[in-house]
Design brief:
Number of helices of chain B: 11
Strand order of the largest sheet of chain B: 4-3-7-6-5
Helix content of chain B: 40-55%
Number of domains of chain A: 2
Helix content of chain A: 40-55%
CATH architecture of the largest domain in chain A: 3-Layer(aba) Sandwich
CATH topology of the largest domain in chain A: D-Maltodextrin-Binding Protein, domain 2
Structural class of chain B: alpha+beta
Number of helices of chain A: 14
CATH superfamily of the largest domain in chain B: Histidine kinase-like ATPase, C-terminal domain
Radius of gyration of chain B: 52 Å
Distance between the termini of chain B: 60 Å
Order of helices and strands of chain B: HHEEHEEEEEHHHEHHEEHEEHHEE
Largest interface: A-B, 20 and 25 residues
Oligomer: heterodimer
Strand content of chain A: 15-25%
CATH class of the largest domain in chain A: Alpha Beta
CATH class of the largest domain in chain B: Alpha Beta
Largest sheet of chain A: 8 strands, mixed
Largest sheet of chain B: 5 strands, antiparallel
Number of strands of chain B: 14
């Protein structure tokens, strides 16, 4: 493994656009490929390192971005025609779908990408490279495995039966702050009528809505929160906290595929295609699985009923999730529910 | 020489020509049908996806409600699931308020230009969507509320990939069977044309294998009518050629046969006259020589006449001839004056014409020979006549004599019937001319004894007189 340089940089205040949170460079090949991603460098590192080892002529400049900043930057690049990144990876797939719908991506086709299921590719311009379930994380010390609610109905019942026990000790994403949280909330709102009941329940026990995965999981690990609803399984696995367990909801489990697209006007589209191709090799998939980014959803041992998984499909339907007025309505519903609950 | 031939464009076979034409027709037809299929497929794809577009737009329009005096859109996912029926197409949507200001849209900063004018509640139009051709529909919903009134326009658009794919599929689905049918038609037409032209092929083979000197007719049975006409003409031509060759061969052999004896006799008489010292004997020899020469002259004339008649019966065109005119001509010519200046000749003809279709010259020759025979062998008076008897037209010569013996009559008309019984100015060639003429025009020769003498008749099928 050759790591030349790993530089973590703070936001550059001078930049007119929001910039990356961290940057790393992998490999020393002559052709530099710029990858902008919402995935933490630490998590993705082994995969990228293996890629540059396999492709010595390439080097990867990896920039870690927040999803909204990444979207704004990519959209601006697309509209101005400035040199964009060579590959963009984001967990906020509704934003990726929007970019593809706006004609900001270029197509790439190979036997591997064409073999992907329909839910994991769109227009051959956007591909889902990971499979990550949205889970319920819990503190193993405070909740025994039997007591952990294994479905949304069980969670509702638990909140109703033991409101004092759970008061202020359930965490979930603040959907106005987190793109991923919003996507999960949006998907929940489509999936079942439990969504409204869940929001009311959360409000009643004064659940904590906060912005970031790391914060939520750290809170679960140190016992601040008993459990966290709808956190991305990969963050739980990577938190490497012995006290945090996770449950795949049995009624249905949302499965997210991080989207990768090659922007129109990319300087190295062929190299980006090679990266895409590499990510679907068995080698890369097993590295991704180790990183928690690929959960074998067909495997019963993962505790997930095959019929219960709900892929968030890469399809134009996700445009609704990014529609301003729909978003306003959902956010209003969200905040009103919480506000009503706050009034005694 | 052969190089010059090789340079010429190769002559295409009939099968190639017909197959080429059939191929061109099939290809032209195929192109026409393909264009029509493509047009129909495009129409079908356009209609079905336009309906989806309209359904989605109506769905969105339905979801618009008025809240606090402003339109509010709760975008229905079902509309997008409907649009996702075209899974690979990009989507455009926008909801415009009464002033054209945007309520919501896929990209509020960029809206498509809507066609101006017209107030129809549903309007389809084509425009570009981020550099890709797309189809749009605008649905207008009018609100009349206490705090809001005016139209709200919902515009939904979609790129054309699914439409193109559907057009392509419809076209392929229709074209594949058509291509198979086309190939089948090609094979069938090849088989049909080959089998139709097979007689021609075997004819060509027959002809190419045929001995160039073989003039026997080609078989025409089991041939198509068109070929039978052609082959019939060719067979007739070959028959005529065959007869001409035969006639020429006969002429040569006859001439050799007929001339050998008189010429030898003339030579003997000449030598005798030259060697004779006695004036009386010499005069006698010269007399004989003269007689022989005269007889040779007659013989030569007859041989030539016969050759001419045989030639003409094959080659001269047939025309309507009045036998009475032939009879009249026979008497008016003064040939008989040479043979018998004081002969008693009478013409027996009626008022009505006796028409046949034949060659006047040949008939004249035949008549002259009949008259010559009568003058030479028969008795006086000699009657020459022409008459119509039922379907027959008859030219006859009757003399007052008893006629030849029955055995001679039997053999009359054959070529070499000069035997010892006939004189040197024999009837053989003369009657063979008559027989040849009779045969050429479908008639016959009859020798009959009558109450008053012996009659020789040339009987031909009568030609109906046209009034």
């Amino acid at each position: 493994m050759k790591i030349l340089r790993l530089a973590a940089a703070l936001v550059l205040l001078a930049s007119p656009l929001p910039a990356q949170e961290a940057t790393a460079r992998f490999g020393e090949g002559g052709t530099e490929v710029l990858v902008r991603s919402t995935t933490d460098i630490q998590i993705i590192r082994p995969v990228i390192e293996r890629f540059v080892t396999r492709n010595p002529d390439l080097s990867i400049r990896y920039e870690q971005w927040g999803s909204n900043a990444l979207f704004d930057r990519s959209r601006a690049d697309c509209q101005s025609g400035d040199a964009p990144a060579d590959a963009i990876v984001s967990s906020a797939v509704q934003q990726m779908v929007w970019l593809v719908n706006a004609g900001c991506a270029q197509p790439y086709r190979s036997a591997v990408t064409l073999a992907l299921p329909q839910a994991r590719r769109w227009r051959d311009e956007l591909w889902g490279i990971t499979t990550e379930p949205a889970v319920i994380a819990y503190n193993k010390d405070l909740l025994s495995a039997e007591d952990v609610p294994r479905s949304r109905f069980a969670l509702l019942d638990a909140m109703r039966d033991n409101p004092e026990f759970y008061r202020k000790r359930i965490a979930t994403y603040d959907i106005s702050e987190s793109g991923l949280g919003f996507l999960f909330a949006y998907s929940d709102s489509l999936e079942a009528t439990t969504f409204g009941a869940l929001l009311e329940g959360f409000a009643r026990i004064e659940a904590v809505a906060t912005c970031c995965s790391a914060e939520i999981i750290a809170g679960v690990a140190d016992g601040t929160y008993l459990l966290a609803y709808n956190v991305l399984g990969s963050y739980v696995l990577n938190a490497d906290a012995a006290t945090v367990g996770m449950v795949l909801p049995e009624d249905y489990t949302l499965v997210l595929s991080r989207g990768l697209m090659i922007p129109k006007g990319a300087a190295q589209p062929a190299a980006a295609g090679r990266l895409l191709e590499f990510l679907f090799t068995a080698e890369a998939q097993s590295l991704l699985a180790q990183a928690g980014l690929v959960v074998d959803t067909d495997d019963d041992d993962a505790g997930m009923d095959v019929g219960a998984r709900r892929f968030i499909p890469l399809s134009p339907t996700l445009l609704v999730a990014r529609d301003a007025s729909h978003r306003d309505l959902l956010l209003r519903f969200w905040s009103e529910t919480f506000r009503q609950a706050e009034i005694p | 020489m052969s190089d010059a031939i090789a340079l010429k464009r190769p002559v295409r076979s009939l099968v190639t020509r017909v197959m080429g034409t059939v191929l061109v027709l099939l290809v032209l037809g195929g192109l026409l049908v393909s264009a029509s299929i493509w047009w129909n497929g495009r129409l079908a794809a356009r209609q079905s996806y336009d309906r989806i577009l309209l359904g989605a737009a109506r769905d969105i329009a339905e979801s618009v409600r008025i809240l606090d005096g402003a339109p509010l859109v709760d975008l229905p996912v079902s509309a997008f699931q409907l649009l996702a029926q075209a899974p690979d197409d990009r989507i455009y949507y926008a909801v415009h308020g009464p002033g054209g200001d945007i309520v919501t849209g896929v990209d509020p900063d960029r809206t498509v230009d809507r066609p101006s004018g017209g107030t129809a509640p549903v309007r389809f139009f084509d425009a570009m969507l981020n550099g890709e051709p797309a189809r749009f529909v605008q649905v207008t919903r009018r609100f009349v509320e206490r705090d809001f009134s005016g139209p709200v326009d919902v515009v939904v658009g979609q790129t054309l990939r699914a439409r193109q794919a559907m057009t392509r599929e419809l076209m392929l689905d229709a074209l594949l069977p058509m291509a198979i049918a086309g190939v089948a038609l090609m094979v069938l037409s090849f088989l049909v044309i080959s089998s139709a032209l097979r007689p021609l092929g075997s004819l060509v083979e027959d002809l190419s294998l045929r001995d160039p000197r073989d003039l026997t007719p080609m078989p025409t049975d089991r041939l198509p009518r068109e070929l039978q006409v052609m082959l019939g003409a060719m067979n007739r031509f070959m028959q005529r050629l065959d007869r001409q060759v035969d006639a020429m061969r006969n002429l040569i052999s006859d001439t050799a046969h007929q001339l050998r004896t008189p010429v030898a006799a003339i030579r003997v008489h000449t030598e005798t006259a030259a060697a004779e010292t006695d004036a009386g004997a010499r005069a006698l020899a010269l007399d004989r020589l003269q007689a022989r020469t005269r007889s040779l002259d007659v013989l030569l004339n007859q041989l030539l006449a016969r050759a001419l008649v045989i030639h003409r019966t094959d080659s001269a065109p047939r025309a309507p001839v009045d036998l009475r005119e032939i009879a009249l001509e026979m008497l008016e010519r003064d040939d008989h004056a040479v043979l018998m200046p004081d002969a008693d000749l009478r013409l027996v003809i009626g008022e009505d014409p006796v028409m046949v279709r034949a060659d006047a010259f040949s008939l004249g020759e035949a008549g002259r020979n009949l008259l010559g025979n009568a003058l030479t062998h028969g008795g006086q008076p000699i009657l020459v006549g022409a008459e119509r008897a039922g379907p027959d037209a008859i030219l006859w010569v009757e003399d007052g004599g008893p006629g030849p013996e029955a055995a001679v009559i039997e053999r009359l008309g054959q070529r070499f019937n000069r035997n010892s019984a006939t004189s040197e100015q024999g009837t053989g060639i003369g009657l063979s001319i008559v027989a040849a003429v009779a045969a050429a025009f479908g008639g016959r020769v009859e020798m009959t004894r009558t109450d008053t003498g012996f009659r020789a008749s040339l009987i031909l099928p009568a030609e109906e007189t046209t009034p």
